[in-house]
Records
---
Amino acid sequence: MKTEIIGREAFQSIKVTLSPGEQFVSEAGKMVRMSTSLTNEVESVKKSGGFLGGLKRMLGGEAFFFSRYTAQSEGEVVLAPTLPGNVGFRELDGTRGWYCAGGSYLGSGPEIKTEPKWQGMKGLFSGESMVFIHATGIGPLVMDAFGTVTEEMVDGSFTVDTGHVVAFEDCLDYTISKAGGSWFNSWLAGEGFVIRFSGQGKVLVQSHNMKEFGAVIGPKLPPR
Amino acid sequence: MQYEIQCAGSFPVLEISLAPGDTLVSEAGAMAWMDTTVDCKTAARGGVGASLKRGILGGESFFQNSYTSSTGGKVALVPGQPGEIRATEMDGQKLMLERGAYLASGPDVTINANFKGLKGLFAEGMFVLEATGSGPMFWNGYGDIHEVQVEGDYIVDNGYAVAWDASLDYNVQRSSKKVRSFLFGDQLVMRFHGHGRVWTQSRSPRSLSAWVFPFRRVKSKG
């Protein structure tokens, strides 16, 4: 299996080349193009580990289906994010896992286990996706991002607006809270919610905030 | 007529230098800036029936601008979506373009709107343009443009194919992508067959609009 980030910084996508028998998994609907020597099977999150029941209704637009690509013979599949920017990429070696936050999970190798982890009611109020995808195992992990992706080393503590977190190592402790003031006031005022990290580990942050961009464009369209 | 793709990278601009007697045709709305010595006229694209304008184009006006200059001048064109601009010197070959990919062309390039009769299949419509003739033709994508050499079969998600050699056949198929989208078109893929090149873009305006959709304000009831 070969994974390659292609394209310019502003519009990156990921090309996965598979040998016969190899597989790759992605969030359903992220495929740009693929060889016909690959099959594309869609699985629900139930099969991949953990049935969330009524929780699915609250996912707010996040597709909770996976596409599994299997190469019958040598072939490729290209996946891309929806918004402009980088693709996040990490090669997991089994020593620690990563949490993909806010819908940033894009794809992973077949040896990577992906478990949805619900963030609870705090996640609901933050306005971001409530489900983090916990990725563990060995192999490539690909993430969606908006803007440029940079890695921050946390040594002690670090606070990030929830909309700017792409992914973080699972050795970090974290809490989701509001930047200041009361819960409901913050929520109504549209104040940012933050993730406070503590411990030692890496955090991938993105330069731009999807929710803020949606809030710029969405209201300009006819109401639904 | 000279051309230069400026700011080459993710946000290029096409700058055309018109000599007296030159004519450039472009998609309506593409003009970004131009010298005052350039004349710009808007006209309906030849041969397009009223029914096309109404239903299939979904309200989009189907006009072209033409630029001339009696003394010479420059005009800069930019497509609606940010992304790569390509220039192809047409010389008798036939190139198919997705509707949004066409940017501009010289006077001896013919652009035919060729609606593939898929109206019965989905309301969105797949609007394909045929480019023939000779001279410069400028086209674009949302994001980067990647070329794929097809030998046999190849699948491109609907919304990502911007141009392809006319030597390629294709059909539109349903795919169980289970994408949560208000656009039925998101459930479709294009299966290309034959020998030729297909050019894909690395982002899809269609996916972007599906993404923005939930951010619209909710109409208050009562």
Note: Residues 210-217 of chain A form the longest helix (8 residues).
---
Amino acid sequence: MPAAIFTRLALIEARRGGLVWLAGLSIVTAVALGGFLAQLAITESRLLQAAVVAALLRVCAVFAIASQVVASVRREIDDKRLELLLALPLSRSTQYLGRLAGFIALGFVLALTFAVPLALWAPPAAVAGWALSLACELALVAATALFFAMTLAQLVPALAATAGLYFLARSMGAMQAIAASPLTEDSFLHELGRHALDALALVLPALDRVTRTEWLLYGLADVRSYALAVGGMLVYTALLAAAGVFDFERRA
Amino acid sequence: MRRDERPLREVPPWVWLALAAALGAQIAWRSQQSPGTTAGPDLPPAPGVQVLRLASFGEPEALARLAMLYLQAFDYAALDYGRLIGWLEAILALDPRSEYPLFAAARVFAESPDPQQDRMALEFLYRQFFIDPDRRWPWLAHAALLAKHRLHDLPLARRYAAAIERNARSPAVPLWARQMEVFILEDMNELEAARVLLGAMLESGAIHDPAEARFLRLRLEELERRLAGDARR
């Protein structure tokens, strides 16, 4: 299966590129910082530790996967290896999706690794739910980073676009809540802004509903809302993959 | 992840010197600066809940607890309690299931040297109690004890006790808490009452955090010492 070669290459490149060390360092730093802050707490020290470590590890995982994807693709393009691969008797969609599958597999490994320390403070079912959700979130981030790395010409704009989309998606729920506040002025401009935000939210993933720290602290929400939130990540990953293949097919 | 390197002796002496001098200058520069502290009376006004929610980037539970650590760093005796209560309300709205703001209000901020400030903290607990009476009754029970023993305001203590009686309906709420007014009117001293309350909280499983248990044990010992000192005088 030709796509599996690209998947394997992505995993080997991550291992040789020092991602293992970065993941280990992230876990040690997050646990140490969580432990330090828990010493300052006068109550809920375990909950504080779990919340801080989970929030930190989530951001670290996203940063690691996004930078790994963007750097890997840019290196391929800069070394002219991409042109060489395009000359192989493999369809472009196979090449693109095989590469994406490798990054998604990498995201799964990272999510499982980062969930291990959380088992110290949270019940196993909640940790498993959090890990699966993080894996789906990282799949989405990998698809985003791959799309922007292939589409945009440079490394920094690709990273900035990935980070921008990610943080905008995570804040969109709060922004909509602010815009819908009953205390805000009831004017045409405000209504226009509110509808613009709602329209923007339609084309963004609901990242504020996944990998929630509250699952670790207070238990998982009901299965239906969990499945809807995580399913939304998979739908958006499919959308980005389709958009990426579309753009890749048009590449000269 | 290895890279080819030349031996250290290949580095020119002036680069060694420049590195050492720059490192020395950095350490000397930083040693002149005092460590940053938030201790002082200048707590800024509380941000809005929506602002905090936006700043949390989808991690309200983590931000709520970090904000509590930030509040703890101030010298609470000299704080503007109006602002402090605003912060506590915003943090509790950010994560309504967290007990940290209620614990801090009951056990730290309501035991300041200024009775007016204590009353503000107690009223905060009273207002917040009605949002979730079955989980927040221990803090109002403690508030009732403080009102009786610290503020010597029996009507206030009875008002809090009556609120628990009327609103806490969960089977997990102990009988004595549901008959709080009788408990308040009993001729118990502060230490006895605190012991009963603490015992009930332990029994109901309300205390499961080691830091909280440690803090409460220290508070109880402090109370024992204070009352023993009062008795000797």
Note: The CA atoms of residues 133 and 152 of chain B lie 24 Å apart.
